[in-house]
Amino acid sequence: MAQSVNLQAKLAPYRTALDGTEIPSVHLHIKEGKTGPYDSKIAGDPYFPKADEYPVDGEGHPMKLLAQINFGQLPKLEDYPESGLLQIFISVHDDLYGMNIDQKQDQKDFRIRFIEEPFLPKEELISDFSFVKIPDDVYFPVTKEGAVLAELTSETISAGDYRFEKVFGKESWDLFESMTDDGEEADALMDEFYETQSGFGHKIGGYPGFTQEDPRQYENQDHALLLLQIDSDDEVDMMWGDCGIANFFIKKEDLKKKQFGNVVYNWDCS
After folding, report:
1. InterPro entries given for it (predicted)?
2. Total-model pTM
């Protein structure tokens, strides 16, 4: 969505600062459909060798694949892997979808795996995942398998990112209030900015979106990179609570080393 002439004019004094935040991002477009074991996907069956130990949650229940990303199928992003499979599993026996509110790096009820190439042939992989059972009384956030199409793009800082104040010198409401003496106009400007700079969508890299606030506002600010973001999406009947969104954040040095044991997992909803 393009910004109105009025908003562009009001932002003119801050344009250099805003443009200076531009970074690349890979946007992920999800289409319902079957996928193969080596493909990027939402839900569905993971690439999983028969010889490997399948991830279980804190109660010993097998976890379900939330997302699998084959970096070899994506445009290249600096500091991100150029190949290999990133897998995220979450508990299907937890109403918070595996997130620990108090310790968001705790992988007791979610798990991140990374598999380097070369991949094993299909005959050495698990093909029947019927042992992963979703109980009727617990809701997994996605009900349909989705294939992933990737698009390299770029974006400037989102309205909810904790670094917003560092860029503009003011919190968002104070910024737009300073642009006009009319409170209603300030509200309208801020609403439009949030709509055009929401950060929503499925993506790797770039800036995150939130329905509440950035969990790094108060801690874990060193987890500066967006490893993966998964939004609510009607295409695959995906819903995080009430139209929410999930984010996974990682430290730059951990990402470069392909170490995924210290990732902040957050989701929120309206």
Report:
1. DUF1963 (IPR015315), YwqG-like_sf (IPR035948)
2. 0.96
